[in-house]
Specification:
The complex is a heterodimer of chains A (140) and B (101). Chain A has 140 residues and is mainly alpha-helical. Chain A has four helices and no strands. In chain A, helix 1 runs antiparallel to helix 2, helix 2 runs antiparallel to helix 3 and helix 2 runs parallel beside helix 4. The N and C termini of chain A lie far apart (49 Å). Chain B has a three-stranded antiparallel sheet with strand order 1-3-2. In chain B, helix 1 runs antiparallel to helix 4 and helix 1 crosses helix 5. The chains are: A mainly alpha (140), B alpha+beta (101). At the A-B interface, helix 2 and helix 3 of A face strand 3 and helix 5 of B.
């Protein structure tokens, strides 16, 4: 493996580590600021929004990132699954953020989690249905 | 990001992405949809490849192009199509001209 190859292969790991450090840093900062400077409710909301933004960030990259992982028999179907996954998870992330911003605090966690779970379940159902459609029928 | 904007600014390249959105296609099949020379088409593919919007897979003697766009890039394509130059079905506008002195 050349230096350039090892650099490019380690780039996603470095990026993920930086993202993890940023998430932990913001969480620690919010904890420090609460309750003197930020109310516990607002801290909760900000954490929820931050997690939603992380979901949006990764969902946005899904159609690009999965190109190397998914090589199914029908390239058109594979591409359709990738695009569907990206869009659905991104919309789930947007729903998660909006729920944390708009829904009353006592219901925000359940609503946000429900919206994201619905998006994930939709993606899983789409993948399973796609695989079932692709697999050839057993000869009787 | 500027390479993405550059790639999406051209109607022919936007049309290529629209075609690839339906299914991966070979370079020849894609070129059949346009009234441009093969070198010009190759230049368009090179711009899309450098912007990381498409991926080229060599299968035997043919090159298959597949879409490699993030959700945001797809949304940008939609905006460019709606608010930029409209792309019509099939044949598109003139290929990029090279300055000759």
């Amino acid at each position: 493996m050349t230096n350039n190859e090892s650099l490019s292969s380690s780039r996603p790991i470095v990026r993920s580590l930086i993202t993890a450090v940023v998430i932990l840093g913001v969480a620690l900062l919010l904890r420090r600021l609460s309750p003197e400077y930020l109310s516990p409710g607002l801290t909760h909301r900000l954490l929820g929004v931050m997690l939603g933004l992380v979901v949006i960030f990764y969902a946005n990259a899904v159609p690009k990132a999965l190109t190397r992982l998914m090589h199914r028999r029908d390239p058109a179907a594979e591409q359709a699954v990738r695009r569907f996954t990206g869009w659905t998870l991104l919309l789930g992330g947007v729903g998660y953020v909006m729920a944390w911003i708009l829904v009353p605090l006592e219901y925000a966690n359940a609503t946000a989690g429900g919206l994201l779970a619905f998006a994930v379940m939709t993606v899983i159902a789409r993948i399973v249905l796609g695989m079932a459609r692709e697999s050839p029928a057993e000869p009787s | 990001m500027s390479s993405v904007f550059k790639a999406l600014a051209d109607p022919t390249r936007r049309r290529v992405l629209e075609l690839l959105r339906k299914a991966p296609m070979s370079a020849g099949d894609l070129a059949d949809h346009f009234d441009v020379s093969k070198p010009t088409m190759s230049a368009h593919f090179a711009v899309l490849l450098s912007a990381d919007l498409i991926q080229a897979d060599k299968q035997g003697r043919t090159i298959m192009y597949r879409l490699k766009m993030s959700v945001l890039e797809e949304a940008l394509l939609g905006f460019a199509k709606s608010f930029g130059l409209q792309v019509t079905n099939g044949k598109t506008t003139k290929p990029p001209q090279r300055n000759k002195k």
